[in-house]
From TrEMBL:
InterPro entries: CoA-bd, NAD(P)-bd_dom_sf, Rex_actinobacterial-type, Rex_DNA-bd_C_dom, Tscrpt_rep_Rex, WH-like_DNA-bd_sf, WH_DNA-bd_sf. Belongs to the transcriptional regulatory Rex family. Gene3D superfamilies: NAD(P)-binding Rossmann-like Domain (3.40.50.720), Winged helix-like DNA-binding domain superfamily/Winged helix DNA-binding domain (1.10.10.10). Residues 117-217 form the CoA-binding domain. It is found in: Cytoplasm. This is Redox-sensing transcriptional repressor Rex. It comes from Paeniglutamicibacter terrestris. Modulates transcription in response to changes in cellular NADH/NAD(+) redox state. Residues 53-92 bind DNA. Keywords: Cytoplasm, DNA-binding, NAD, Repressor, Transcription, Transcription regulation. HAMAP family: Rex. The keyword Transcription applies. The keyword Ribosomal protein does not apply. The gene is rex. Homodimer.
Amino acid sequence: MSTEDHTEDNGVPAGVTELPAAHGQSLDQASAQPVTASLTRILPEATLARLTQYLRALIKLKASGELRTSSGVLATAAGVNPAILRKDLSLLGSYGTRGVGYVVVELTEHISKALGLLQQWRVAIIGAGNLGRALSGYGGFRSRGFEIAALLDAAPEVIGTTVGDMEVQDIADLESIVQRSKANMAVLSVPGISAQDLCDKLVDCGVRSILSFAPVVLNVPAGVNLRRVDLATELQILAYHAQNLEA
Ligand SMILES: NC(=O)c1ccc[n+]([C@@H]2O[C@H](COP(=O)([O-])OP(=O)(O)OC[C@H]3O[C@@H](n4cnc5c(N)ncnc54)[C@H](O)[C@@H]3O)[C@@H](O)[C@H]2O)c1
């Protein structure tokens, strides 16, 4: 969540790393580590988080008509140290040109490509309660390339209701809805007790990228990426740091 440097990235060594294949890894509840289960070239987690900040800053620079930028300007806009930014971008093979800096459009495309944002992501939100409804109405997803493809729930009183221009559909029709809506990503905003079963069903439907808000550890098979968001954990970490500041 933070853009600060977590240099060694939760155990992932700095630099581009080859990870061995893993089977049915589960997500460490506290660390929000990704569960990735294929032999892939990956970037450090902290670098990935910062790349999203660079991208956001570049989009702003582009909107204000800037054609080129320097590591100093971009680092300030993204709230990181320029040396870290240069190291992150070097991992992508983007070194900029001495005295010229980075071409905004080129670097935007380079980072977008590295983050997998040049392909279309269509997100099914599972669970149309407080969180699911709020997420489905959030305009920031679409502007960053994530289309809300479907919103599903199991409760009869919720199915058929609308959130914005989206109708809540019946989870019993998950497979056909995933196919029809071409959803290739899912968000789980359901109670913990339902989360593993729904996760398994999504995987059976071919969804390989899942973001879970449910407060439980989930298991996914090889080839499926799972991430967990836990605001309560973030608050606990914040409390720890606040306590240390006061000491
Ligand atoms: N990670 C975070 O930071 C964070 C923050 C808030 C909430 N949460 C978690 O997110 C989840 C949702 O929270 P909420 O406040 O929206 O709860 P909610 O009770 O308002 O909504 C949950 C929805 O899930 C639906 N549901 C239950 N079982 C289902 C199933 N099998 N298939 C489809 N839909 C099903 C319910 O009908 C309900 O509409 C909870 O697990 C909560 O703990 C996490």
